[in-house]
Amino acid sequence: MQQGQVVAEMTLEGLHVSKKFSDLKVRLGDRTWDVHKVAVCMRSSFFEATENVVTLHEDQPEVIDQMIEYMYKNDYKDDDSDIDPRVFNVRMVAVAEKYFVDNLAQLAIGKLAEQVYEGMSSSGWADAIEVAYATTADSNHELRDTLFGFVISRAGSLLDPDDPEHTDFRAMTERTPRFSLVLAQRLADLQRRQSSLSTYRCPGSDCNVAFQTWMEAGHGVSWDCRECGESAAHDYQIWQAYRVDLIVNEPVAFQPGNHFGLPW
Amino acid sequence: MDFEQTWAILASAFTQIHEKQASKLSFEELYRNAYKIVLKKKGDELYLRVAEFERDWLSSEIERRIHKELPPQLMNALQGRSSAGSVGDDQVRTQGERFLRQLKLAWEDHQTCMSMLTDVLMYMDRVYCADTRRPSIFTTAMSLFRDCILRSHVRGDDSWPDICGTLNHVILDQIRMERDGDFIDKHLIKANVYMLEGLYDSHHEVEEEKLYLTSFEYEFLASSAEFYRALGDRLLKESDAGQYCRETRKRIDEENDRCRSTLLESTTPKIQKVVEDELIRYRMKDLIESESGVRFMITNERHDDLALVFDLEARVDPRKPELTKALQKIILEMGTNLNDAAQLGAAAEAPEDRAKAPADKLVNQQTVAALKWVEDVLELKDKFDAMWKQSFQSDQTIHTAIMRSSAEFINSHPRCAEYMSLFIDDNMKKGIKGKTELEIEALLNKAIVLLRYVQEKDVFELYYKKHLGKRLLMGRSLSIDVEKQMIFRMKMELGNNFTAKLEGMFKDMTLSEELTAGYKGYVARLGDADPRRIDLAINVLTSMTWPVETTNSAPDDARESRLKTIYPPAMERIRQGFENYYKEKYSGRMLDWKGNMGTVDVKVTFPKVPSKGFKERRHELNVSTYAMLILLLFNDLPSGASLSLEEIQARTNIPTNELVRNLQSLAVAPKTRILLKEPMSKDVKDTDKFFFNEGFMGKFHKVKIGIVSAGNRIENDRERVETEKKNNDSRGYAIEAAVVRIMKQRKELSHQQLVTETITQLNSQFKPDVNMIKKRIESLIEREYLERIEDSPSSSYRYLA
């Protein structure tokens, strides 16, 4: 099927596989990638400024490999190596920042955000957080918010000194003072907000989920339940029918809901 | 990571970059090091170090290189720029170019190095600078170039201008050389201009603060203004106006080119304004009024130069005030000269010849002068029309100016309306002979154009009617068709009202032809085959349509007008016959016979005069109706008998003035002396006696005996006074009619408004005199058409139904 091969090569992906017309060599350690400027330099200001051979240092070959994959395919795999996928994604954010690869950081953060709910061990998260604070700019709030999305939802147990499951996490907080400081601030902030929270149950029938949020007359809150898939957007009056007065000790999910009708 | 260690790597690399030895450097290594510094939150420090590095490099190495190119000799020459033109111009220029080259090089190197540094420091620029809102390191480095190089002083001496000021001087000096005709290195200057364009006066990078604008352009415009002011002075003194215009055009083009090739295009409109101000706006008046100015150009038909003047002034002012003013003045002067010449021509030979030449000859001379005036006016108009098309791009403003001043001088000639009608008359009788249709068309157009200028359209109408009447009745028009075309054009131009009566005259003529033919048939049917029958051609004129002098024989006193002309029986019979025929056709109409208007062919037999050896001779005489009546009297007279003027008048009732005129034609004019007068003199007196001239000898069988002053010619003073009076009367009626029309509609109106509206209404016919309007209003009040409104603050009137 020679015809088919020619057609396949005519796409960027095809060129990537065949390495035909490669005009740029990227080296790292003992690895070399034969790539095409048209793919790589178009998506990265760093590579745009390089010449025909560029030798990288201090990066992970697995990450660079997938970064190049992304440049050709618009996507990469975070579970194709021995690195924990969460750490892998954070490292991808770091190289995206370092080499100014268009849209790669957003893609990586998106992948990371999905992993927040996958219930993986906290030690992987601890590593991811540590790498993030060491290799990405403080101004990358999106990445930090995503990581906190995981941390805040289970701050109680993560920080419980008697909880043996999360010792790695607590060890990490000691090594990463900047993270710890911000975590403390966020928790304090949450505390302040929770004092004005009420508890509502999911409007889905036979759903046991309850959530907490704050609400006043004249405003509304939308709710997408992860358990039963119920999707609701009601104003204050209607939500009162779902209000439960008991304080749920450990809500199944905490989700602030999307406030609407509010001036902020 | 140790900052100092890492920075040392970077600093050494930067030095190599600036020294153009960067080929061995690893971009990735430098990038990584800068990245790590910023990632470790030392971006602030890195930024400051880089800036410091650049400052050091510029103010040591680069400043030295630039200052080296500014030897004291050059600085002195640039300071005392007036002497630069004389001594060592070449050297100054070479040194200046070396300085420009060095500065260009420094700037280009700086840009190249900084763009390499920007690549290395990409992470700092995009993360640290973006987060802390600092300008990019490139921007900062450009400001440093401005501060360390352009604002530095040679040898640290503040009494010299800084490099930026020196740069201005050098560039302006080079431009001066180019303006004086030298070749300069435009690219070199342009490179430096780009540098000024790329730098700002302060760290706020706003458009208005570009160094090009704040430092260079202002000085360029100021020195250019100075240059062009001096040039304008010199050109006005040394060149003629045409050369001045060409030079100015050339200079404007040059400055445009200079902006394109040497400076920036954004300067084009500004420098154009400078040149336009200095060479055109402030000079136009002097230029136009100079000896070789517009008057000279017009006199010598310098159309190209005039076009240049127009072009120049149009650049600075769409109204072209100076050119317009000058043209108006010149047209008015030329027109006034024509007016004076016409008056002079009319009066020229009058004093000495008055005694010898008959008054009629004088009148003829004046008629010639009048026709010449019109021809001259047309020629003048053609000249300016051609100029308007050729030199002034058919510009509307100029057109209006030409129209206005033409109208002004034409109307300042008191007899312009009469002259124009005479001009048409002359052409209708002689002028169009042998002309093609196209030529006639052009002539008619010219006549209409002239008519457009005449303000007193009513006076023109009066004369035109009179002249046309005579042409029609005497069959003097070469082409009735052309006459009708003329009327048609007048109708298009001035409207129905103006031509209604003129058209009526043509209608009468056509009708008269039918009447004549019809009468012939009528006579034939009566069966009266009288062999001595007289052929009758008749013109029936409607009295209101035709000019008054045609329909009234203008008798000297009222008594005469009541007397009826006595026709001999043969004639009387025909008259009666026609009247019968006419009354059959149109009952209730009065026919009034005009003996002064008609002509008759008479066969006359002159007897043998043996004493002189003359045989019997037959002649056919064409005479006026009155002359025929006179001649018929002599039929019944024995040979040798005479009649006195009084006797003739008694037997014919011809009005005295007509009688005198006819007798002059018959007895005084040398070639048509059918009668002899005693005593023989030019004047005709009551007591003169008249004899039949049996010895008359004519060269041709047919003899036309013209009545003195029968043709159209200029009016003599008496006629003119009459015409004026007639015209004033008709204006009076027109005013009254207008006033009544207005008041009928408005009921009440203030005096001022009434006068204004009356003038507006009548403007197309003539320009009413305000005093005349006042008098007419008074008269209408007396006749109780209007009344004054009592106790009204301003004087007002009310219409009385």
Overall mean pLDDT of chain B stands at 83
Largest sheet of chain A, in brief, is: 3 strands, mixed
The interface involving the most residues is between: A-B, 17 and 17 residues
Mean pLDDT of chain A: 81
Helical content band of chain A: 40-55%
Low-confidence stretches of chain A: 248-256, 259-264
List how many beta strands of chain B DSSP finds.
Answer: 9
Overall structural domain count of chain A:
2
Q: According to CATH, what is the topology of the largest domain in chain A? A: Potassium Channel Kv1.1, Chain A
Report the end-to-end length of chain A measured between terminal Cα atoms. Answer: 61 Å
Q: Regarding quaternary structure, how should these chains be classified? A: heterodimer
Question: Could you name the key traits of this structure?
Answer:
heterodimer, A: 264 residues, alpha+beta, Potassium Channel Kv1.1, Chain A, 2 domains, 3-stranded mixed beta sheet, 3-stranded antiparallel beta sheet, 13 helices, 9 strands, 48% helix, elongated, disordered C terminus, B: 801 residues, mainly alpha, 34 helices, 66% helix, 5% strand, SKP1/BTB/POZ_sf (chain A), BTB domain-containing protein (chain A), BTB/POZ_dom (chain A)
Task: Describe it.
Chain A: Pfam families: BTB. Chain A: This is BTB domain-containing protein. The complex is a heterodimer of chains A (264) and B (801). Helix content of chain A is 48%, strand content 14%. Chain A has 264 residues and is an alpha+beta fold. Chain A has a three-stranded mixed sheet with strand order 2-1-3. A three-stranded antiparallel sheet of chain A has the order 5-4-8, with no helix packed on it. By secondary structure, chain B is mainly alpha-helical. In chain B, β8 (786-788) and β9 form a beta hairpin. In chain B, α9 (163-179) packs parallel to α11 (211-238) and α24 (480-494) runs antiparallel to α25 (496-526). The termini of chain B are far apart. Residues 81-86, 349-357 and 553-557 of chain B have low confidence and may be disordered. Chain A binds chain B through residues 45-46, 49-51, 54-58, 97-98, 100, 135, 137-139, and chain B through 26-29, 31-32, 35, 38-39, 41, 119, 122-123, 126-127, 130-131.
